[in-house]
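Sequence only, no structure available. Ideas?
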Amino acid sequence: MKSVHSPAYRVLVDALVEARKTAGLTQQDLAHRLGKPQSFVAKVENRERRLDVVEFITVSRAVGLDPQTALRRVESALPVQA
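Reply:
I predicted one. Tokens follow.
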């Protein structure tokens, strides 16, 4: 499933946004931590840009979210396959 609009991907992005806000960070603050422009963060949060696994880990750590915790949330949102 490659859609950035899949339910599981929404769960992932929502977890990152929630963690950013909980940490009291603006998109600009996060972008600065990542060495990226604010538009990078906005595109990720608006699901216009998909994160690869390395970017996901980097963003997770930058907002204080354990990547494994976020992945467990995503896993629970995936349909069970036989």
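Residues 17 and 44 are 9 Å apart (CA to CA).
Hope that gets you unstuck.
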